[in-house]
UniProtKB/TrEMBL annotation:
Residue ranges constituting the Carboxylesterase type B domain according to the UniProt record: 1-145
Residues that span the membrane, as ranges: 175-198
Name listed for the protein in its UniProt record: Carboxylesterase type B domain-containing protein
Key words, A-Z: Membrane, Transmembrane, Transmembrane helix
Pfam families from the UniProt entry: COesterase
Stated family: Belongs to the type-B carboxylesterase/lipase family.
InterPro entries tied to this protein: AB_hydrolase_fold, CarbesteraseB, Neuroligin/BSAL
Length: 206
């Protein structure tokens, strides 16, 4: 429930909006390492794909000594495979705008081409040991928070807040402006006096 409320429904709204203007690739990370440090009942937690994207399974003792980075768990051959898989796709997307380009061997992508997200079937890539394209990820659950919950709560999905009135200048700000004005006035007076004295001294010489 909290995942759908805090992450899923908002993410779904953003993706549905972005796909109208840009090419969007949507994924759900479902891979779980045998050595995962989190309890099995939690499944795959939010953000758990990041160590694989940044190559943590390839960090060995040499890198640990050089960087001081200690992975939270031990990684095995399968973990390194999934990390290489994700690094390749993220690099392709960054460089070419397509995580699984058609001109590269599909075996590099576990025999699955990542299809673009669309508003018809909400296609996405389920990233596991056997990655595959699926459709309509939790649309009924997101619909509960987007449509049904606002009705029973008596308020719209988007809560509008009153505009913040312009704040009045505080006493300290007023004093600062006043002192700045006085300082500028004194500076002008000093400059004028200097000019008058210089002219008087020149008159006396002649």
């Amino acid at each position: 429930m909290m995942s759908d409320y805090m992450f899923g429904s908002a993410m779904n709204e953003v993706v549905d909006y972005q796909v109208r203007f840009n090419t969007v690739f949507f994924y759900v990370f479902k891979y779980r390492s045998w050595n995962d440090y989190t309890p099995k009942w939690r499944g795959v937690s939010h953000g758990e794909e990041l160590p694989y994207v940044f190559g943590f399974p390839f960090i060995n003792e040499t890198y640990i000594n050089l960087t001081g980075i200690y992975p939270r768990q031990e990684y095995d051959f399968a973990d390194r495979n999934i990390s290489e898989y994700m690094i390749t796709m993220w690099t392709n997307f960054t460089a070419r705008g397509d995580p699984t380009p058609r001109d590269q061997p599909i075996i590099w992508f576990r025999n699955s081409t990542w299809l673009e997200y669309n508003l018809h079937n909400h296609s996405y890539l389920s990233i596991t040991n056997k990655s595959e394209n699926l459709t309509n990820y939790r649309q009924s659950e997101f619909g509960f928070w987007r449509e049904y919950f606002p009705q029973i709560s008596g308020r719209g999905y988007y809560i509008k807040t009153d505009p913040v009135p312009p704040s009045k200048a505080s006493v300290y700000e007023s004093m600062t402006y006043a002192l700045a004005a006085v300082g500028a006035l004194l500076l002008v007076i000093v400059i004028v006096m200097c000019i008058v004295l210089i002219r008087k001294s020149r008159v006396k010489k002649y």
